[in-house]
Amino acid sequence: MTKSQAGETDTASVLRDVRRIVRALSLASRDLARTHELTVAQLLCLRALGNAGMLSAGALANALSISPQTVTGLLDRLHARGLIARARSATDRRQVLISLSEQGGKLLATTSPSLQDRFVQRFSALPQARRAALAEALSAVVTLLEADTLDAAPLLAPGHALSSNAVEPVLEATLAAGDASASPAAPG
Fold first, then answer.
1. Segment 89-101 mean pLDDT
2. Is the pTM higher than 0.85?
């Protein structure tokens, strides 16, 4: 095999693997929509609320690394389905706090581990040197795809915290700062 043929084979292999990753994400999203009538982002909102108990829209946006405008739309759709509840803060009536409704808690309890959950578990089990090598290689692929300037949260699909405790540091920092940067959700 010539050097040129080897390069073409490597290129085809990498492109095929990138396509497999995209396909796996698409299938996981489609399965979630079919099974629970949720988008990945909606599921992640529910999980963050399930882990934290109650959050402002701004704290939720920070926890999920999404914009306040995006989280407001997600919350409106979840509220319309009766999966979340909104209540004014007892200490600051201007602030609206979001929590899971009973129906949202039941739905969340029926969801199985996501593609990202399984990935995080398997990736975490790898030796540190292997994780670092994979991270470096994937970063290089991102650069080659000219995607390194795109904003993206550490999620496999639009919108899942890396662990059940991932929301806590963001919540603590937000509350410590008086949640000054948070955009309260519209009531109702």
1. 90
2. no
pLDDT in tens, 31-71: 888 989 998 889 889 999 999 989 999 999 988 888 888 89
Q: Which two tokens stand for residue 32?
A: 């979630």
**Angle, vertex CA 102, rays to CA 50 and CA 170, nearest 5:** 20
Backbone angles phi, psi at 18, to 5 degrees: -60, -45
Average pLDDT value for the chain: 80
> What is d(CA 48, CA 84) in angstroms, rounded to the nearest whole number?
12
pLDDT for 1 equals: 67
CA neighbor of 185 nearest in space, from 81, 95, 82, 91 = 95
Q: Which CATH architecture has domain 8-176?
A: Orthogonal Bundle (1.10)
The residue written with tokens 């389905």 in the block is 81
CA–CA separation, 63 and 48 (whole Å): 8
CB 59 within 8 A of CB 168: no
